[in-house]
Amino acid sequence: MPAAAHRRLSSLYRRAFVSGASTGLGQAFAQMLLAEGVDVWGSARDVARLAHLSTEFSGNATNAGVAPGADTANTAVANLGALEGDYPRGRHGRFTPVALDLADGAEAERIFRETAAQACGGQCENAGGDQCENAGGFDIVINNAGYSVFGDFAATDFAHWQRQIEVMLVNTARLAHAALGDWRAREAAEQGRREVASDALPPRPRALVNVSSLAAEFPLPYQTSYNIVKAGLTALSESLMIETAGTSLSVIDLRPGDYRTDFARSVLYLGEHLEELHFDAGATTPLSKERKADVPPSEARKIERLKTAKAAFERLMQGGPPPEHAARALRRALLRCRSTTLRCGRFSQAVLAPLLARFGSLALKRRVQARYFDV
Ligand SMILES: NC(=O)c1ccc[n+]([C@@H]2O[C@H](COP(=O)([O-])OP(=O)(O)OC[C@H]3O[C@@H](n4cnc5c(N)ncnc54)[C@H](OP(=O)(O)O)[C@@H]3O)[C@@H](O)[C@H]2O)c1
Fold first, then answer.
1. Per-residue pLDDT tens digits for 296-333
2. I need a labelling partner for 40 at 20 to 30 A (CA). Which of 175, 266, 288, 312 fits?
């Protein structure tokens, strides 16, 4: 058997679901899995944004007729550029686009379950002929999709904060619930078959990856609901690690630091109209110069802080490593088939800061955190 680092993920996992695969980290995770021979169902709200993955990783001639795990070089993997040389060469997986919006939890779950059932063709090889009608069809589920809301907590309409918590925490937990419920049932069936037939396959490894953030430990200024969401997702992963201990299921609490992605561009900035909000709670249009001069100094200072924090946030993200860096870390964790907390990113963020936080006081941590964002 090849050493762990040289093993392909397709020797362990066959089918993966990645939410938010159109850009950034999700796209890098999908590309990494595809390069490793795993078939990927990747989602975006608009499938047109997944066209590049669909084209590059369709079930094309290089893929056809090649047994899983066979080590043949193929052009799609070689064309990946940033990934070239990062992963063992061989047959690439097949990509299937999925239109899924987390804004509607019930609909997102329905699409997720339907996709999982289709993914294994309505029948799972490892279900011993049982019909697969549920979310158990994936071996890896990566809950990655997300965005942020930036603004002064009190000055921003609470509906914005509530919405983000519903979309990113409640509805993401809903997909985790669907996947895990079916995996547990499937694992029990696999165990049962082994008890009566010793040559039956052992339960397959399956992995749930919840993309949290280092913000779960080091909250970002003016992104209150984002911090709540990420702390919640980390708590969800921690809870599930306890519940799945001793099973073939693993849970990865992935906490990236700053990465260079489209994230900062997709943030819903609500702070840019604070001057306007000072006069009118529903304001969305810029104030005239004359009225801006009427903003009291205490309010102006608050607005300045907010703008400084925004600039620092964008600068830190731009200076982060490329998303492929996180994909490599995730690949190593998936090969280990063990539940884990995975921090990744710059050394100062992913290693040094958590280490110092462990030994320092919370008050000191908060002061350093504020300085880090220039507020
Ligand atoms: N980049 C970082 O520094 C960083 C650090 C820590 C954690 N993270 C986390 O990593 C994850 C990915 O972020 P990223 O940096 O890669 O951002 P990104 O480049 O903006 O990608 C976000 C992805 O999420 C999808 N998405 C957004 N809102 C959605 C919704 N309501 N329903 C379904 N899909 C939705 C987007 O798809 P469409 O817009 O195409 O639909 C896109 O594919 C997020 O959970 C983020 O919180 C990022």
1. 777 778 878 888 888 899 999 999 999 999 999 999 99
2. 266
Dist. CA 208 → ligand 1 center (Å) = 17
- 267 within ligand 1 shell (Cβ under 6 A): no
Q: Which of 168, 148, 213, 175 is nearest to 344 (CA)?
A: 213
Q: Where are the domains of the chain?
A: 4-262+322-372
Ligand 1 centroid distance, CA of 37 (Å): 24
CA angle, 183 as apex, 180 and 186 as ends, to 5°?
155
What are the E-state strand segments in the chain? 15-18, 39-44, 95-99, 140-143, 149-150, 206-211, 249-256, 268-269, 340-344
Ligand 1, from 147, 268, 341, 346: best to mutate by most atoms within 8 Å of Cβ? 147
| pLDDT per residue as tens digits for the range 41-57 | 999 999 999 999 999 89
